[in-house]
Amino acid sequence: QVQLVESGGGLVQPGGSLRLSCAASGFDFPWYAMSWHRQPPGKERELVARISSRGGNRDYADAVKGRFTISRDNTKSTVFLQMSDLKPEDTAVYFCNAEYLLDNNIEYWGQGTQVTVSS
Predict the structure, then answer these.
(1) What is the pLDDT of residues 14-30, one digit of tens each?
(2) Using CB atoms within 10 A of its CB, is residue 71 exposed (0-12), middle (13-18) or buried (19+)?
Protein backbone atom coordinates (compact mmCIF):
# COMPACT_ATOMS: atom_id res chain seq x y z
CA GLN A 1 0.00 0.00 0.00
CA VAL A 2 1.45 3.30 -1.13
CA GLN A 3 1.60 6.01 1.51
CA LEU A 4 3.00 9.52 1.66
CA VAL A 5 2.62 11.02 5.10
CA GLU A 6 3.46 14.67 5.62
CA SER A 7 4.26 16.16 9.01
CA GLY A 8 5.79 19.27 10.53
CA GLY A 9 3.20 21.86 9.61
CA GLY A 10 1.74 24.34 12.06
CA LEU A 11 1.37 27.97 13.02
CA VAL A 12 4.48 30.16 12.84
CA GLN A 13 5.14 33.88 13.02
CA PRO A 14 6.47 35.81 10.02
CA GLY A 15 10.22 35.36 9.79
CA GLY A 16 10.07 31.98 11.47
CA SER A 17 11.06 28.54 10.25
CA LEU A 18 9.47 25.14 9.83
CA ARG A 19 10.71 21.80 8.59
CA LEU A 20 8.27 19.58 6.75
CA SER A 21 8.82 15.84 6.39
CA CYS A 22 7.20 13.35 4.05
CA ALA A 23 7.62 9.67 4.90
CA ALA A 24 7.08 7.32 1.97
CA SER A 25 6.23 3.64 1.93
CA GLY A 26 4.87 1.03 -0.45
CA PHE A 27 7.03 1.91 -3.46
CA ASP A 28 10.70 1.96 -4.46
CA PHE A 29 11.57 5.44 -3.20
CA PRO A 30 14.99 5.92 -4.90
CA TRP A 31 13.29 5.54 -8.29
CA TYR A 32 11.04 8.53 -7.75
CA ALA A 33 11.57 12.25 -8.10
CA MET A 34 10.01 13.99 -5.13
CA SER A 35 8.41 17.39 -4.90
CA TRP A 36 6.51 19.67 -2.60
CA HIS A 37 3.46 21.57 -3.77
CA ARG A 38 1.19 23.96 -1.94
CA GLN A 39 -2.35 25.21 -2.23
CA PRO A 40 -3.06 28.60 -0.67
CA PRO A 41 -6.63 29.33 0.43
CA GLY A 42 -8.86 29.88 -2.59
CA LYS A 43 -6.06 29.29 -5.06
CA GLU A 44 -4.78 26.46 -7.23
CA ARG A 45 -2.07 24.04 -6.22
CA GLU A 46 1.43 25.14 -7.24
CA LEU A 47 4.87 23.56 -7.36
CA VAL A 48 7.20 24.72 -4.59
CA ALA A 49 10.31 22.57 -4.98
CA ARG A 50 11.46 19.40 -6.70
CA ILE A 51 14.39 17.06 -6.15
CA SER A 52 15.64 14.36 -8.50
CA SER A 53 15.65 10.69 -7.57
CA ARG A 54 19.26 10.71 -6.33
CA GLY A 55 19.16 14.25 -5.03
CA GLY A 56 21.56 15.75 -7.54
CA ASN A 57 19.14 18.25 -9.05
CA ARG A 58 16.86 20.64 -7.21
CA ASP A 59 14.46 23.24 -8.55
CA TYR A 60 12.49 25.91 -6.74
CA ALA A 61 9.63 28.25 -7.45
CA ASP A 62 10.83 31.84 -7.71
CA ALA A 63 8.74 32.80 -4.68
CA VAL A 64 10.72 30.51 -2.36
CA LYS A 65 14.25 30.61 -3.81
CA GLY A 66 16.79 31.39 -1.13
CA ARG A 67 14.33 30.66 1.68
CA PHE A 68 13.32 27.01 1.19
CA THR A 69 15.54 23.95 0.80
CA ILE A 70 14.39 20.54 -0.37
CA SER A 71 16.36 17.43 0.55
CA ARG A 72 15.88 13.68 0.72
CA ASP A 73 17.19 10.67 2.59
CA ASN A 74 16.82 7.60 0.39
CA THR A 75 17.88 5.32 3.26
CA LYS A 76 14.82 6.47 5.20
CA SER A 77 12.46 7.03 2.24
CA THR A 78 11.84 10.57 3.41
CA VAL A 79 11.85 13.97 1.75
CA PHE A 80 12.16 17.24 3.63
CA LEU A 81 11.34 20.88 3.06
CA GLN A 82 13.22 23.32 5.26
CA MET A 83 11.38 26.64 5.22
CA SER A 84 12.96 29.81 6.56
CA ASP A 85 12.01 33.50 6.65
CA LEU A 86 8.39 32.50 6.29
CA LYS A 87 5.91 35.08 5.03
CA PRO A 88 2.12 35.28 5.34
CA GLU A 89 1.86 34.45 1.64
CA ASP A 90 3.47 31.06 2.37
CA THR A 91 0.27 30.08 4.18
CA ALA A 92 -1.09 27.00 2.43
CA VAL A 93 -1.66 23.28 2.62
CA TYR A 94 1.63 21.65 1.61
CA PHE A 95 1.54 18.37 -0.30
CA CYS A 96 4.22 15.82 -1.00
CA ASN A 97 4.38 14.22 -4.47
CA ALA A 98 6.28 11.22 -5.85
CA GLU A 99 6.81 10.83 -9.61
CA TYR A 100 8.20 7.63 -11.09
CA LEU A 101 11.51 8.17 -12.91
CA LEU A 102 10.61 5.95 -15.89
CA ASP A 103 6.96 6.93 -16.32
CA ASN A 104 5.75 10.31 -15.16
CA ASN A 105 2.14 9.13 -15.42
CA ILE A 106 2.78 7.15 -12.25
CA GLU A 107 2.63 9.50 -9.32
CA TYR A 108 1.40 9.60 -5.76
CA TRP A 109 0.21 12.36 -3.46
CA GLY A 110 0.12 12.80 0.28
CA GLN A 111 -2.84 14.18 2.21
CA GLY A 112 -1.17 17.49 2.99
CA THR A 113 -0.11 19.44 6.05
CA GLN A 114 -1.29 22.94 6.95
CA VAL A 115 1.24 25.75 7.27
CA THR A 116 -0.05 29.04 8.63
CA VAL A 117 2.19 32.10 8.85
CA SER A 118 0.62 34.76 11.00
CA SER A 119 1.40 37.10 13.86
Answers:
(1) 999 999 999 999 999 99
(2) middle
